[in-house]
Amino acid sequence: MLIDYRSDTVTRPTPGMLDAMHLAPLGDDVFGEDPSINALERQASDMFGMQAGLFCPSGTMTNQIAIKCHTQPGDEVICDYDSHIYQYEGGGIAFNAGCSVRLLSGDRGRITAAQVMEGINTVGDVHKAVSRLVSLENTANRGGGSCYALSEIEGIRTVCDRHGLALHLDGARLFNALIATGDQPRDYGRLFDSISICLSKGLGAPVGSLLLGNVDFIKKARRIRKVFGGGMRQAGMLAAAGQYALEHQVNRLAEDHRHATAIAEALAQKPFIESILPVETNIIIAEMRQPWKPQDLMDYLRPFNIEFFAISPRRFRLVLHLDITPAMVERTISLINDINILPCSQA
Ligand SMILES: *Cc1c(COP(=O)(O)O)cnc(C)c1O
After folding, report:
1. Is the CB of 209 under 6 A from ligand 1?
2. Closest protein CA for atom 6 of ligand 1
3. What is the structure's pLDDT at 37?
4. Which pLDDT tens digit goes with each residue over 177-205?
5. What atom of ligand 1 comes closest to residue 209's alpha carbon?
6. Which of 26, 71, 256, 281 is the most buried (most CB within 10 A)?
7. Fold of the CATH domain 3-7+252-337
8. What secondary structure letter does DSSP report for 314?
9. Cα separation, 87 vs 89, whole angstroms
């Protein structure tokens, strides 16, 4: 069986989730008549203490809708250089919202209140784009699953309030952060104007993300979702999967975090590993020592049915998730321990 560390998006629905999907009452969600979607939107917004929610096909869509709703063309979005919204959403900030980006160079994907302050353009300077929105990512994917301290976000909120900026959270893996830090969903609900959460990452639903915000924001977002082609019809089966995930598959994320730490500890012993980012949640990002390359380790482990991705010429990423069992982790660790000399493709 494939031991697939490429992403936490590769999970399959569990038997309990499939039952929930099968039993979901359905209606046309573009008419607002799908009871399962309405229930999921309510459940999630209540959980975060926010007014309303919107079910969307992907986290890219929830982020892009949020950016579009918070801005006008010519405005500027402030975010970390490694942000998903900048790196992995196809240039959507420009394409969908007509905005420019102020990229900050944070610490493992996390920016500070002081950096945000410096990134704000002077109001009234006709040379400059209008700073309008700050977007944070928690956990930060390219930061190796790093978590924000709530106090830093509070500082950023204060800066946003002082300068009239909206604050969005790309919380594709927010539940990993909540499990790791013990922070509560409501802590986040009160600090952000909008929050995107993914049901299809660690939570293990096959499809779906939620955008949360106040009633006016979600009303606008619902319109933009339709314009982006994301209005779905009897999609309650997907919402039922998401609801099941929120009810049954959040607390188990701690197991993924333990697995990630254990694998990272094994990797850290090897001479071909230069460094590993601190493992805070379910992601391991490691750098190969020269002259080795990620491909060398990928080639070595592939015959044992272990897959993962390189994310740069020297760095690779392993992601833990629902479908990685303790036995798979043990097998992975013993294979890593047994590597005597890793063949090197190029001296
Ligand atoms: C996966 C991910 C998203 C959304 O991705 P989709 O594949 O469009 O659902 C957004 N932000 C981060 C940080 C992600 O890792």
Report:
1. yes
2. 59
3. 98
4. 999 999 999 999 999 999 999 999 999 99
5. 9
6. 281
7. Aspartate Aminotransferase, domain 1 (3.90.1150)
8. S
9. 6
CB atoms near residue 286 (< 10 Å): 25
pLDDT at 33: 97
Question: 43-52 burial by CB neighbour count: b if 16+ within 10 A, else e?
Answer: bbbebbebeb
pLDDT score, position 335:
97
Beta-sheet strand order (sheet of 309-310): 273-276, 283-288, 315-319, 309-310
CA distance to 41, 164, 175, 232, per residue, from 238 (Å): 12, 36, 19, 10
Quote the pTM value: 0.97
By alpha-carbon position, which residue is closest to atom 8 of ligand 1?
A: 60
Other Cβ atoms within 10 Å of 344 Cβ, number: 14
Cβ of 142 closer than 6 Å to ligand 1, yes or no, is: no
Q: Which residue has the tokens 């995107």?
A: 196
Nearest CA to 132 out of 167, 88, 108, 170 is that of 167
pLDDT reported for residue 345: 85
Q: Pull the structure tokens for residue 72.
A: 């006008």
Residues of the chain with pLDDT under 70: 346-347
pLDDT at 135 (0 to 100): 98
* Candidate of 201, 207, 317 to mutate for ligand 1, largest count of ligand atoms within 8 Å of Cβ: 201
Pick the CATH number of 14-248 from 3.40.50.880, 3.40.640.10, 3.40.50.2020, 3.40.190.10: 3.40.640.10
Average pLDDT, the chain: 97
Rounded Cα distance, 75 and 72, in Å: 6
| Beta bridge partner(s), residue 209 | 56, 198
- Return residue ranges of the chain for CATH 3.40.640.10: 14-248
pLDDT at 347: 55
172 lines ligand 1 (CB under 6 A): yes
